[in-house]
Design a protein that fits this description.
By secondary structure, the chain is of the alpha+beta class. It is built from 1 helix and 4 strands; from the N terminus they run ββαββ. Strand 3 (about 55) and strand 4 (about 60-64) form a beta hairpin.
Length: about 60
């Protein structure tokens, strides 16, 4: 999977990352439509985390 650009939201008091989650990619249209139907009404996902790992992709592999 190619590297993704990270999106930022800014407000007057803070700036924060907007995470990205790939559910399906490169599948037949029928599979993508089934996945979309299964997720409809369940997004967006909202959660708090206590830590994260930042990973980078050099075009060949992911690394921390």
């Amino acid at each position: 999977m190619p590297p993704r650009r990270v999106a930022f939201h800014s407000s007057p008091s803070r700036r924060f990352l907007v995470p990205h989650l790939t559910i399906a990619q490169g599948q037949d249209d029928a599979v993508l439509e089934e996945v979309e139907a299964g997720l409809r009404g369940r997004l967006p996902v909202t959660a708090r985390v206590s830590s994260v790992d930042l990973m980078g992709h050099d075009g060949t592999r992911w690394q921390q």
